[in-house]
Amino acid sequence: MKEMLVKILNIYYTRACLRNCSFVEGGSVICMEGTLMIRVAIVEDDELYITQLQQYLQDYQKEYGEDLDVKIYRDGDGITANYKAQHDIILMDIQMEFVDGMTAAEEIRQKDTEVIIMFITNMPQYAIRGYEVGALDYILKPVTYFAFTQKFGRAVARIKKKSKKFIVVQVKGGVHRMDVSSIYYIESQAHNLIYHTKDGIFVSSGTMKQAEEALNGMNFSRGNKGYLINLEHVEGVLDKCAVIKGEKLLLSRPRTNAFMQDLTRYWSEVK
Length: 271
Fold this sequence. Notes:
Elements: H1 2-12, H2 15-18, E1 21-24, E2 28-33, E3 38-43, H3 47-64, E4 68-73, H4 76-80, E5 89-93, H5 101-111, E6 116-121, H6 127-132, E7 137-140, H7 145-162, E8 164-171, E9 174-179, E10 183-189, E11 192-197, E12 200-205, H8 208-214, E13 220-224, E14 227-230, E15 234-238, E16 241-244, E17 247-250, H9 253-269
Parallel strand pairs: 3-4, 3-5, 5-6, 6-7
Antiparallel strand pairs: 1-2, 2-8, 8-9, 10-11, 10-14, 11-12, 13-14, 15-16, 16-17
């Protein structure tokens, strides 16, 4: 089964992406798409800080196993010229000779609402203006490695949270690839799993235990022994039922408390 799925997956993914897939007993495969390599820009006109930040990023890669692609710009105009949303994280100095970091950030934000901007500066008084351009954080100079890893790690975690994940499941006549976020809930009937998604209903062989293993850590929770519910689509809980796209799924008494804890945690994280 695994060998057959690998052959089919090669249609969809490069081998580099297949390294980000995990196989689950029962014929499911979880693959991550999106930001496989994190693209980092350093915008800094001080060579000493450029060297330091490059070394910190190299050390971070080794320590945390991340794959970083780093590009250097020595002034704000270097990154704003022909900017095409080509970076995931920008480490931006504020005081630079030609175009300062705040002006560059304002120009970038007009073209790219998703990139994470972090200011590296000895001027904390710019904090309020930084929030106006959606800066994630500030790192004050002189920069220590500990402070850098704490704040850079927060940016990396945010990017990973945005990365798309896909599940590939065996269905009658072949396999089907679906975005995990498109799944409303999974229903267990006999020896089949019924995937209720925004693209329709898909039936696969397998057990609820296998589905839970495949989707572990992806904000799914058991409402009862027959339902695995995507918390992303829960609109509320009414009359002991989870409401998903207007449909009510009964919560069993033994699982209600755990489900409500999972839901409360998820809602607090996505505020």
